[in-house]
């Protein structure tokens, strides 16, 4: 996983975005150099693959971005398509997933750069795992992305080591 070398002095947004990017890079790094077949493999008892984790991370970030923008998420999964968010389907490839995630990254960074305050909030949708009428701040969203990506970077490290023995930060 990439280390965040320094904070951006006096720039909370820049620092949080740097930590988000470091965690994104940890996920991407776990899949670097693999073939499509290796990235799609599931070498553990888990249903997770590296390509599926990258696709999920990109979709997850887009979902949170759309919530923060208070816009509907395009291609939001439903119960029937939920598992497709964790694997490549219909001719999807690693380069396509990475390019999509890069476009989401750029949109997230532009959006966060433009919000008046990280204290600005947005409503959470009705869901059993969210409080009724819940709201979160832009800061919370960035911290949540760091948390989400760090969790999945750990999964990715284990999967990669199982694929070919490559260890994180090695």
Short précis:
The chain has 5 helices and 2 strands.
Radius of gyration from the CA trace?
A: 16 Å
Spatial separation of the terminal alpha carbons:
9 Å
Largest sheet: 2 strands, antiparallel
What portion of the residues fall into strands of 2 or more residues? under 5%
Side-by-side strand order of the widest sheet: 1-2
- Mean pLDDT score: 90
What form results from the Cα inertia axes?
globular
What features would you describe in this structure?
The protein starts with 11 loop residues before the first helix and ends in a 6-residue tail after the last helix. Strands 1-2 form a two-stranded antiparallel sheet. With 170 residues, it is mainly alpha-helical. The longest helix has 27 residues, at 138-164. Helix 1 (12-31) packs antiparallel against helix 4 (94-114), helix 1 packs parallel to helix 5 and helix 3 packs antiparallel against helix 5. The protein has five helices and two strands.
Throw out a few tags for this protein.
170 residues, mainly alpha, two-stranded antiparallel ribbon, 55% helix, 4% strand, globular
């Amino acid at each position: 996983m990439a280390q965040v070398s320094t904070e951006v002095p006096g720039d909370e947004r820049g620092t949080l975005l740097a930590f988000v990017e470091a965690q994104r890079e940890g996920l991407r790094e776990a899949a670097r150099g693999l073939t499509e077949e290796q990235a799609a493999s599931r070498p553990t008892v888990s249903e997770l693959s590296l390509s599926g984790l990258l696709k999920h991370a990109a979709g997850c970030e887009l979902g949170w971005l759309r919530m923060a923008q208070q816009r509907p998420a395009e291609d939001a999964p439903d119960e029937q398509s939920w598992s497709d968010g964790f694997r490549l389907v219909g001719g999807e490839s690693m380069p396509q997933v990475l390019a999509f995630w890069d476009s989401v990254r750029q949109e997230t960074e532009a959006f966060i750069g433009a919000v008046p305050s990280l204290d600005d909030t947005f409503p959470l949708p009705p869901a059993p795992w969210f409080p009724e009428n819940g709201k979160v701040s832009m800061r919370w969203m960035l911290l949540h992305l760091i948390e989400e990506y760090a969790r999945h970077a750990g999964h990715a490290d284990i999967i990669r080591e199982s694929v070919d023995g490559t260890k994180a930060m090695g």
